[in-house]
What we know:
Layout: H1 2-14, H2 40-53, H3 58-70, H4 78-87, H5 93-105, H6 118-127, H7 131-139, H8 150-162, H9 166-179, H10 188-201, H11 204-219, H12 226-238, H13 242-248, H14 257-269, H15 273-282, E1 297-298, H16 299-312, H17 315-330, E2 334-335, H18 339-343
Parallel strand pairs: 1-2
Helix pairs in contact: 1-11, 2-4, 3-5, 4-5, 6-8, 8-9, 8-10, 9-10, 10-11, 10-12, 12-13, 12-14, 13-14, 14-15, 14-16, 15-17, 16-17
Amino acid sequence: MTMFVKSMKAFCSSRSLTAYSRSIHVTKALNLYSPTALGIDGYLQSRKRVKDQFFNFSDTFRAKMRDFISEPKHMIFTEDLKNMVHMAEPTDLDLVLNMIKKFNNQNTEFRFGSFVFGPVVMRMFHFLDAPNEALKSFEDVENSGFYDQLVSYQILLDLLYNHEMFDEMYRVFEKVQEKQLNMTKFPKYPLIVVLAACYKQNTPKSLEFATKIWTEMTSVGTVPVRRAATLFAALALNQGAPHIALESISAQKPHYVTVRNIKVIALAEMGRVDDALPVLRSVMEIDVPEQNHKHTFFEETISKVRSCIEKTENKDIQKEFENIVKALGDRDLIDNQTLDSLVTSEINITSKSPRKVQGMPQMPYTLRKKRHNAREDMV
């Protein structure tokens, strides 16, 4: 592990770390976590109930809340804020921000409830597609402690990711590490989304940031989850560091499609094509008749390996490679998926299927795109 850390530090110090440019990234950012994974489906159900309850006097309630935030003698109670958060429209965001601030600064002796607002408010911001307001509320010193829950960080990071606000994400993640909520400095779900941001930004600066996180994490013995490892490895490949990519997936099981393809590309780009060929050949020894479970390679992987092999000018290796490719094709083990589409595919971390809320649009304000079809358990 020490050699890995030294290798990455040496690589990063040898690169000229250019200034961040919002124009430099591989592909347009998509949503990373599904609404179900973020708890937004549950928020929608509560939102439907509250909007039905306040159907005839929602404007009156809003007017009352505006009066309450402007008058020092009035208090914002738990039920007031809960109702406003669940009925809020984009035009209500300033009102909600002021209610949060007043609620958080009221004397604690008047609080008897145990309702945790942070995640619910962040789901509201996510649903209303309001990254700037979410970040403003999160960073407001008067809201100290209000968002001190890991899931609040996760939802905020996902919202910022949707809008390619990568530098802001790095700033938020540093807050995660400072707080060490639940006694962890590297919470897995916020870690995944911040590494996705590094991957999407795809600059020497983002590799440096990701490498710093990775070296700190591995130095204390934390084992990253597969998606985090493949995002970091894919970024390293894009930034011309196949040795980092290869080492970062070393603890992952080789039967996953992303891990297998990254390993072959990294070996080939390191000039170790003779080691890449047995990995390509190995999937033909696995007898899995079901189409969904075939151990495949991407067309782009085959193309990259071919390019590396052609540079060797070794006719024997070239011939062996083409024989392997033909055999893979004959067995239908080459597909047109891409590494990018899989490492950024949507994550659903719950197995529950929430009841659809009748009469409520699911995500009317967000920029969410069509979900990827790739299954997370094989990514």
